[in-house]
Amino acid sequence: DVKVTQSSRYLVKRTGEKVFLECVQDMDHENMFWYRQDPGLGLRLIYFSYDVKMKEKGDIPEGYSVSREKKERFSLILESASTNQTSMYLCASSSPWANQPQHFGDGTRLSIL
Amino acid sequence: KQEVTQIPAALSVPEGENLVLNCSFTDSAIYNLQWFRQDPGKGLTSLLLIQSSQREQTSGRLNASLDKSSGRSTLYIAASQPGDSATYLCAVRPSDYKLSFGAGTTVTVRA
Question: Residue A64: beta bridge partners?
């Protein structure tokens, strides 16, 4: 079974802090994704990566950056956290083939105070 | 831009009744369509994936159909149980890697 592991289930940080969210997958997937999920807005793609050191902006990249130094690990960075970044953050991974699903982690509930 | 709509937004049924969840999308140029389940406060669990060349997929009590030309998919859950209570999301994958998600249907199965 594919395992996507997010480092924290719950996280509380203060405004202005630099925040790191970590995600690790164990299936050697090329593609990795970061989403945020908010009530009434659904899932929105922040960034995705299709290979080591490669990244592309999603629909809402402002205020975020990412890092993918190793194939299995994809990090989301909030450069200077703000209260409007309080949300549920979901990491996913997949192979590039059309017949393969995206697999998600359990999510990180991030609160910025 | 691909838009994905799920109707109804919420559904409540008695245990044992069959569930029918609908998903529609505006652009028929897709690689696949995926159905997910999400429990409160948790991540998404992949249920079924239908490739664009397929008409349906089945897994246990779950059956998903795809009519690409009309931009519709339906998820059927037979003989519902209280444990089926969750939010169900559909997502379509166009030509690149990204998924476009619907807002979900929240299902409550009453014992």
Answer: A78
What are the start-end ranges of the E strands in A1-113?
A: 4-6, 10-13, 19-25, 31-38, 42-51, 54-57, 64-70, 73-78, 87-94, 103-104, 108-112
**Amino acid occupying residue A67:** S
Judge: B97–A94 Cβ closer than 8 Å, yes or no.
yes
Q: Is B29 on the interface with A (CB under 8 A)?
A: no
Answer yes or no: do A105 and B99 touch at CB < 8 A.
Answer: no
Q: Please give the C-alpha separations between residue A16 and each of A7, A9, A85, in angstroms, as whole numbers.
A: 21, 21, 11
Q: Which two tokens stand for residue A81?
A: 């956290």
Residue with tokens 């994809």: A74
Let me know how long chain B is: 111
Which tens digits make up the pLDDT trace of B31-71? 899 999 999 989 999 999 999 999 999 999 999 999 999 99
Contacts of A94 (CB under 8 A, 6+ apart): A29, A31, A33, A100, A101, A102, A103, B97
Query: How far is the C-alpha of A78 from the C-alpha of B13, rounded, in Å?
Result: 42
